[in-house]
């Protein structure tokens, strides 16, 4: 039996779709037939991705800062309801400054990481899930991190936010499953994109160090999780909910 990832007629929103993993997820959804709203805080990035995906017949840009509840509501007004929501926007603690052990941080250091990696997931999901319940069909996928599955030095707050997002998705799955709405997570290892790619460019020796714990000896590529996300969003994933799927090169076993 072949798996048919057919999203024809479905409308999707991907937060943080303007680069990296988000862009590859947008592309996978469009290839499967969905119309995709490409969200990004930088409008020009979202517009470039939407254009590359074929323009308004296939994708459109929608600028919004997903840490702002007001701007999320304005985004919801612009897009209307969607069938598929991918909560992809996020950034590791290292994106906000120097790496610090938790004992050396202050509450001010935590706020941005928690607001984007957990708060935005709650607010965006809240804005869109009601229409999915009313329609009797929906798919929510949240991109999380192995820092939240196993714990990492210098990543205590980031890991806590991602672990919170996993718990939230499990709770949502339990609440909306009877309405044919699923909620799952895809958990990533270290991805060679964004701030990490910039760091690797500055320090090539860092990559050799980072790949040592990986069973498959390379870092993640933005396209690695995209097809799994598309499958979870399709009818092929209709009996999968409340789960966390690692795409991490064997870094941390799910069993």
Description of the structure:
There is one protein chain. The protein starts with 10 loop residues before the first strand and ends in an 8-residue tail after the last strand. It is an alpha/beta fold. Strand 1, helix 1 (20-31) and strand 2 (35-40) form a beta-alpha-beta unit. A seven-stranded parallel sheet has the order 3-2-1-4-5-6-7, with helices on both faces. It contains nine helices and seven strands; from the N terminus they run βαβαβαβαβααβαααβ. It is globular and about 45 Å long.
Which CATH architecture? 3-Layer(aba) Sandwich
Strand percentage: 15-25%
- CATH fold title: Rossmann fold
Q: State the CATH class.
A: Alpha Beta
- Secondary-structure-based class equals alpha/beta
CA radius of gyration is: 17 Å
Indicate the percent of residues in helices. 40-55%
Overall pLDDT, averaged? 94
List its salient traits.
255 residues, alpha/beta, Rossmann fold, globular
């Amino acid at each position: 039996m072949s798996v048919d990832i057919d999203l024809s007629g479905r409308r999707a929103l991907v937060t943080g779709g303007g680069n990296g993993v988000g862009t590859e997820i947008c592309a996978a959804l469009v290839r499967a037939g969905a119309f995709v709203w490409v969200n990004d805080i930088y409008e020009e990035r979202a517009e470039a991705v939407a254009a590359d995906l074929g323009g308004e017949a296939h994708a459109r840009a929608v600028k919004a800062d997903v840490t702002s509840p007001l701007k999320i509501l304005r985004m919801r007004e612009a897009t209307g309801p969607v069938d598929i929501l991918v909560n992809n926007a996020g950034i590791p603690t290292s994106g906000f400054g120097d790496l610090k052990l938790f004992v050396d941080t202050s509450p001010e250091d935590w706020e941005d990481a928690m607001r984007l990696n957990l708060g935005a997931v709650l607010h965006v999901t809240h804005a869109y899930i009601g229409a999915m319940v009313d329609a009797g069909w929906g798919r929510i996928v949240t991109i999380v991190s192995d820092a939240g599955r196993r714990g990492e030095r210098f990543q205590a707050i980031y890991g806590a936010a991602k672990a919170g997002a996993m718990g939230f998705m499990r709770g949502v799955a339990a609440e909306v499953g009877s309405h044919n709405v699923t909620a799952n997570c895809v958990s990533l290892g270290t991805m060679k994109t964004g701030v990490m790619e910039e760091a690797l460019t500055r320090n090539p020796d860092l990559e050799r160090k980072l790949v040592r714990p990986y069973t498959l000896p390379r870092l993640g590529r933005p396209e690695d999780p995209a097809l799994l996300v598309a499958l979870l969003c399709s009818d092929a994933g209709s009996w999968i909910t409340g789960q966390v799927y690692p795409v991490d090169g064997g870094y941390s076993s799910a069993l």
